[in-house]
Amino acid sequence: MMNKISRFGGLVALSLFVLPMVANAQGATIETVILDVTYLLSLAVPLLITLALVYFIWGLGEFIFAGASDETKRAEGRNRMIWGIIALFVIVSVWGLVGIVARTFSIDQTSTLRGDQVPLVENPFE
Question: How far is 51 from 57, CA to CA, in rounded Å?
Fold first, then answer.
């Protein structure tokens, strides 16, 4: 029963995310799709960092408030803290590598992507 509920919840969340894009897809071009994906990725990095930090703090709280009496809770808290730190390290490292690559190839990260910057393939059937 819980599996069906979690699948339904995932389907609802996906629908709430995708349906506005589908509704706006009538006038969509490859330019608008690239701009939308770029915008969503720019929102994803701070969100992932926040989630990893919350996971770390959750483990820290579990580790501290478990006390010396419950070793399994302390071990779970320690594991959450370790995985939270690993997640933060990976996210920030990848973000830094993207910045290094962008500076290496002189890609301006402060401006947005304009439609005339996107290479297009002409449709031979028009």
Answer: 10
Q: Are 49 and 60 in contact (CB under 8 A)?
A: no
CB atoms within 10 A of CB 117: 10
Domain presence at residue 11: no
Tokens of 63: 């580790």
Alpha-carbon distance 23 to 36, whole Å? 14
* Tens digits of pLDDT across the chain (126 residues): 556 666 666 666 666 666 665 555 556 666 666 667 777 777 888 899 999 999 999 999 999 888 767 888 889 999 999 999 999 999 889 888 877 877 787 766 555 556 566 566 666 666
Q: What is the pTM of this model?
A: 0.58
**Domain, as residue range, for 67:** 28-114
Answer whether 81's CB lies under 8 Å from 63's CB.
Answer: yes
